[in-house]
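Archive maintenance. Older records in this collection stored only the sequence; we are now back-filling the structure field for every entry so that each record is complete. The fields below show one back-filled record exactly as it appears after the update. Entries are processed alphabetically, and FkbM family methyltransferase is next in the queue.

ARCHIVE ENTRY
Title: FkbM family methyltransferase
Organism field: Pseudodesulfovibrio karagichevae
Length field: 285
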Amino acid sequence: MLKSLTPKDLDGGVNLLDIGCSGAPDEKWRPIRRLVNYIGFDPNQAECERLDAEPREFLSTRHLPYALAGEDGERELFKTKSIYCYSLLEPKHEWLERFSYADLFEVEGTIPVTVKAMSNVAELAAFDADVVKVDSQGLDMEILRNGRDIVSRAFYVETEPGFVEHYRGENTFCQVAGLMGELGYLLFGLTLCGVPRKGPFAKRKGKTQVMWGQNVWLKDYVALEAEGRAGTLTRAKALKALLLCAVEGVPDFGYELAVCFRGKGLLSGQELESLSSESAWNLSE
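Back-filled structure field:
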């Protein structure tokens, strides 16, 4: 059932927002790439034009030259030695200097950039996001909180907050987890990332202090429905939720949602039965 879904079944496809879109999209999206409408954000206009020119197999692709933050305005972007450490927040050097990757955060200058709150991006007015991925170098909470109306309608949210402050004023995992809980999301993915300290063990492989994590949050429609907070659920939204459970590899949660959706008349009995085997959730080509 899930492998045969078309954009028409999904009300035009799965809508994915990629905030901080440097690098290639994650390979996990490959099995459903022809169902995905992709919008990426990068504050560099030239980079957006370059990315738009690259061949992609998504249903549609667009890159917007905005830096997202908590509110509209002008901010300074800290340009660091590594482009992947650029941030609207200043690196916390006295902390970072203790670790082997401190040089990546060395500030080489600042540039003024125009920033927008997610909710105020005109191009998103008609884009009902199903997936929101945030890789913002310390601004996850600020972006999510001020894009709450968009995030609350999504099913799948990916964040990458630190467990400690790498930047001054950085939002940490505990803050992000609190907001996601308020919005009815559950944690389904937690990839922990650590870095060794400077010194004779700087290149040692093994256990180090956990510095940040890559997190996946899925909306708990079962609990929200019981609380009367699920909002208006359509068949297309239900199918997209099930498809995204397959992408994340969580058929147990997907089937629980399917039972809930069947109770609301969004799935047929035959469709529910077809989802009772693990193979039904395998999207591999």
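Update note: The CA atoms of residues 71 and 117 lie 5 Å apart. The longest strand covers residues 107-117.
Entry marked complete.
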